[in-house]
Design brief:
This protein is α/β, with parallel strands linked by helices and about 280 residues long. The protein binds zinc ion (ZN) (2 copies).
């Protein structure tokens, strides 16, 4: 009897939370909203929704970043052998999506994982409906202790609940690799690859795996994780991130708004690629 009461109370609390959080206030500006048909209308007020950087124009068919018309593969993908089969993201990295991702990551606003997951889940089902299992980009134990949660895992767990595709913890990061700014792309990649390895390999053998992360920036992390997954026997690896950073040159041509926090990185990245040639 007690169990039933507890269950009902839990269900009521969940409904109430969903109601107060989702149907009443915009997840970006907190203004009152009255819901709507699309995910954007459900989670954001009309003003914020209209500003949201939906990645629904032309995209690179491999990495899913915004692209200019008639470009099938972007400069980052043409001529490179990536370990992942394809990547997609519902947003490009620009306001206000960038702030929502930063708030989730650095400001302990964990409920935003649920908001982003709604869009990630729709993107996943729209592109990789045949997926068998969902996983996420790992953090080192130390980093996770410090932040107290892994935002990619939070998103992945919500995506799993929404899609019914099981989530599995199959990757681990064994060394911190944050200080890689001065390395070349190749060095950075090798560095990362050495720090990420698979575990619980039986869960992904021969399966179509979807790797979830918050942002696809240079693609190095997605690559390192995908390489580990393939090595462990994954049949296919797809990547779905909440947002992807558009190549700065492309972003300028498309007139995309510049993200508030990542401008430096994007610029360095462009320069680095140029100097590597
Ligand atoms: Zn709003
Ligand atoms: Zn690409």
């Amino acid at each position: 009897m007690f169990r039933l009461k507890e269950k009902l109370l839990g269900a009521w609390k969940a409904v109430k939370k969903e109601y107060t959080r989702v149907d009443r206030t915009c997840n970006n500006c907190r203004r009152e909203i009255f819901g709507g048909e699309t995910l954007g209308e459900k989670y954001f007020c009309p003003d914020c929704n209209a500003r949201f950087p939906y990645n629904d124009g032309f995209i690179c068919l491999h990495c899913g970043r915004s692209a200019i018309e008639n470009v099938k593969l972007c400069d980052d993908c043409a001529g490179y052998e990536w370990s992942y089969d394809a990547a997609r993201s519902p947003f490009y990295y620009a306001p206000p999506a960038d702030k929502i991702i930063r708030d989730l990551k650095y400001d302990n606003r964990r409920f935003l994982a649920e908001v982003l997951a709604a869009f990630v889940a729709a993107e996943l089902i729209g592109n990789f409906a045949e997926a068998d299992v969902i996983t996420f980009v790992p953090m080192t134990d130390g980093a996770k202790r410090k932040r107290r949660y892994n935002q990619s895992e939070l998103i992945a767990r919500h995506v799993s609940a929404r899609t019914g595709i099981p989530a599995a913890d199959v990757l681990e990061k064994v060394a911190e690799t944050d200080r890689q700014a001065k390395l070349t792309r190749k060095e950075r990649l090798n560095n990362l690859k050495g720090s990420i390895r698979s575990k619980n390999g039986a869960l992904i053998e021969g399966k179509a795996v979807v790797l979830i992360d918050d942002v696809l920036t240079t693609g190095s992390t997605a690559e390192a994780c995908s390489a580990a997954l393939k090595k462990a026997g994954a049949g296919k690896v797809y990547v779905v991130t909440a947002a992807s950073v558009t190549n700065p040159k492309t972003a300028r041509i498309l007139g995309q708004e510049t993200p508030a926090g990542k401008v430096k990185l994007a610029k360095t990245r462009e320069k680095r690629r140029f100097s590597e040639k």
